[in-house]
Amino acid sequence: MAALDLPTGMSTTFTGANGSGKTTLALTLAGLLPPLSGHVEASPAMSPPGLRPRGDARTDPAQWRSKELLTRLGTVFQDPEHQFVASTVADEIAIGLRALRRPAPEISRRVAELLEQLHLTRLAKANPFTLSGGEKRRLSVGTVLATSPDVMFLDEPTFGQDRRTWVDLVRLVTAQLEAGTTVVSVTHDSDYLDLLGEHRVHLEAAS
Ligand SMILES: Nc1ncnc2c1ncn2[C@@H]1O[C@H](COP(=O)(O)OP(=O)(O)O)[C@@H](O)[C@H]1O
Ligand SMILES: [Mg+2]
Questions:
Q1: For position 56, what pLDDT does the model report?
Q2: What is the torsion angle, in degrees rounded to the nearest 10, for the CA atoms of residue 146, residue 4, residue 50 and residue 71?
Q3: I want to staple 30 with a disulfide (CB 3.0 to 4.6 A). Which of 75, 76, 147, 148 is the partner?
């Protein structure tokens, strides 16, 4: 691939056969994997403040600290369980905000608001691993939404959802786009593509 742009505020989708490199590309753009070749450049407007020893560090997401990623590039993994680290649903959502040392009242407010939006309020004290597939997926999206990243990467967000949880999920993503977030989704889902395939990137498997 010569060059790929993720237009600000738009929905970009990555499609392609299994093994074509969609997940690898998304994780690379999200600053979680060093590029196999080439380079990733974030818009200077997104760059963390402060000077770094290496020249390109401010626009190279792979060199950002995890705290700096939280408000800039959020990633929802294909398997929600890979994301869970807390013992309750509410704590899971609060983790990023705590890492950012946000004031306690603000954290409580944001967690309550997200639980409501995600239809998870009654499960606030449950262990994330005991949730149903649809609930786990919504929670994994919520943990990333909590810190309001500028760009959100979603790896097969609708996989394993039923009709109702699918609708909830698409609503959440649409609301993020309306709020100005740039959304990048890896997907095989043609209904999702119809609604959110504003900017489509198709990956060909290497031969
Ligand atoms: N640009 C690349 N060059 C070489 N190997 C790659 C590249 N992108 C992905 N791979 C490898 O190909 C395999 C499948 O990639 P993955 O990103 O999981 O594909 P997908 O998500 O489309 O199923 C992985 O082992 C990955 O390390
Ligand atoms: Mg994948």
A1: 67
A2: 0
A3: 75
Q: Which CATH number fits domain 11-33+59-203: 3.40.190.10, 3.90.1640.30, 3.40.50.300, 1.10.940.10?
A: 3.40.50.300
Atom of ligand 1 nearest to the CA of 20: 22
User: Which atom belonging to ligand 1 lies closest to the Cα atom of 78?
Assistant: 21
For the chain, 207 residues long, the average pLDDT of each consecutive 10-residue run is 88 96 96 91 84 69 89 93 94 96 96 92 97 92 94 92 88 93 96 96 84
Q: Which residues pair with 182 in a beta bridge?
A: 151
Residue 81 annotated as catalytic? no
Residues 6+ away with beta carbon under 8 Å from 201: 4, 12, 13, 14, 15
Catalytic residue among 68, 116, 156, 198: 156
Ligand 1 geometric centre to CA of 26 (Å): 10
